[in-house]
Amino acid sequence: MNIIETRDLHFQYPDGTKALNGINFMAKKGEMIALLGPNGAGKSTLFLHFNGILKPTKGEVLIKGKPIKYNSKDLIEVRKTVGIVFQNPDDQLFAPTVKQDVAFGPLNLGLSEDEVERRVKEALKAVGMEGFGDKPPHHLSGGQKKRVAIAGILAMEPEVIVLDEPTAGLDPLGASQIMKLLYDLNRKGMTIIISTHDVDLVPIYADKVYVMSKGQIIKGGTPKEVFEDVETIRKANLRLPRVAHLVEILRDKDKLPIEMGFTIGEVRRNLKKYLQETHE
Ligand SMILES: Nc1ncnc2c1ncn2[C@@H]1O[C@H](COP(=O)(O)OP(=O)(O)OP(=O)(O)O)[C@@H](O)[C@H]1O
């Protein structure tokens, strides 16, 4: 069963902007999905439908097979299942201290103080922000705010975590730490959906990739299936992972028949294979 599904989803903003034009999106339990697309493609708008913050103009959103009903009781249940980390952490952080911010969601779930404390501690540790609990969020750097925003959602222990550009604004080490954390959570069974412009990270972590352009999904599949369709990738103002671009150049310009790959590991294997074959 799909844990999140949209059927023929359309959305128009009050000013008339048609941001989504017939989206059929599917996330199965336990998948790690990356949504790619240029600025303004509709990624954030789609995400805001996943926990009922926005209501479709047409079409429907199903959580665990049930259409969202948009009454407050139903929305509480939906938000227990699906947690969203917004693109801009300033939209998410508002409490006087980091600790209070991360505790806000769990407290609203009516959990005991001990349980809230445990979750806050664990979530801050997971994002590498233990020791920052007493700081006001507005004194943190952009990347630190992002981590705290992620901790706030982790502390809710949702079944699905949706992150709008989780690595944007993070330094390279911070970005790989966050991706590694999401990967570990995914291995433990959590469904993870991210939007990103970081095409180098996608083939390493994602099971499934969707490409959006102008409010539509123009391609979906495994990273291999998606990145092999170079025409669609370039049409959506995206690029190949750099390591794949290198293979493309070696094949096209240098006429070396190296098998395509999308991660450093894959390309390394393919290069070694090629070198072994030519030296036999
Ligand atoms: N509140 C709003 N009112 C009107 N139009 C909006 C609003 N928010 C977004 N839009 C428009 O909807 C379209 C989709 O925007 P959205 O933010 O979903 O794109 P995105 O793919 O997340 O882009 P980015 O990669 O830049 O974050 C754009 O044309 C945008 O200008």
Automatic annotation (TrEMBL):
CDD domains given in the database record: ABC_cobalt_CbiO_domain1
Subcellular location: Cell membrane
Domain ABC transporter: 4-239
NCBIfam families with a match to the protein in the record: cbiO
Pfam families (UniProt xref): ABC_tran
UniProt GO cellular component terms: ATP-binding cassette (ABC) transporter complex
Family: Belongs to the ABC transporter superfamily.
UniProt keyword annotations, A-Z: ATP-binding, Cell membrane, Hydrolase, Membrane, Nucleotide-binding, Translocase, Transport
Membrane topology: Peripheral membrane protein
Domain of life: Archaea
Lineage: Archaea, Methanobacteriati, Methanobacteriota, Methanomada group, Methanococci
GO molecular function list: ATP binding; ATP hydrolysis activity; ATPase-coupled transmembrane transporter activity
Protein name: ABC transporter ATP-binding protein
GO biological-process terms attached to the record: cobalt ion transport
